[in-house]
Amino acid sequence: MSLLRCFFAVVFALAGSGCSSDSGTEPGVATNPTDGAGPNATSNPTPAVCESLETIKRGEWQGRRFPTVSWGDVDALLASANDATMVARFPQNPFSSESQAECSVGILSLWMIEGIRRGLPGGYPSLNPMLSKSTDAPDLDWIERSERHRAEAAEAYRRWWATVKTKSDAEREALDPLAGTGLLWYGAG
After folding, report:
1. What is the 3-state secondary structure (H, E, C) of 129-148?
2. How far, in whole angstroms, is CA 85 from its chain's centroid?
3. I want to staple 109 with a disulfide (CB 3.0 to 4.6 A). Which of 18, 24, 77, 139 is the partner?
């Protein structure tokens, strides 16, 4: 019964993500990272982001590589931002010395959006997909910190996207979604 419940939880989570179960491409085939870029970006996610989210939610993510994502994927990623499902296999920056055992799908989705916005080589926007505020208690676990701030960060990214969705890539990149919130990504430089 537990397996059946897990199956339906994943199906319902994916149904709200803006991704269909049939991605229209072979698994593992990267799409053009500029798909959906520019001021006329569509809200149709690339098959690669749908495949990445599905693989992460199934606990089958292989390796540490950052997913292939683009501006056209932001709506699908925002749809997953409230997902508190904890996963143990997810993209991790190989340059981070901080070991992270788990992360929520919601935090990962926001981290992927930040990766799109920052446009850095490799895609990693920070050392880890963890959020904090300077006012957090120093003894608070990093995963707990991130989850405590996930809803606020998701709302900040939604406001940012509503503001920049029709703007140029340069304008999207220049406006920090977390400005004024006190929130910071772990190891963001």
Report:
1. CCEEECCCCCCCCHHHHHHH
2. 13
3. 77
Q: Give the strand pairing for 103-104 and 86-87.
A: antiparallel
Spacing of C-alpha 24 from chain mean position: 21
104 three-class SS = strand
Of 41-50, 84-93, 159-168, where does the model show the most confidence?
159-168
Indicate the DSSP class of residue 99: -
- The reported pTM is 0.76
- Answer whether 152's CB lies under 8 Å from 181's CB: yes
- Please report which helix (H) or strand (E) contains residue 50, including its range: helix 47-57
User: Would you call 88 exposed, middle or buried from its count of C-beta atoms within 10 A (0-12, 13-18, 19+)?
Assistant: exposed
26-54: per-residue pLDDT in tens?
233 233 333 344 444 445 667 777 888 88
Q: d(Cα 49, Cα 13) in Å, to the nearest integer? A: 14
First to last CA, the chain: 46
Q: By the 8 A CB rule, do 13 and 77 touch?
A: no
**Is-contact 70 46, C-beta < 8 A?**
yes
The closest alpha carbon to 28, from 57, 74, 68, belongs to: 68
**DSSP 8-state code for residue 165:** T
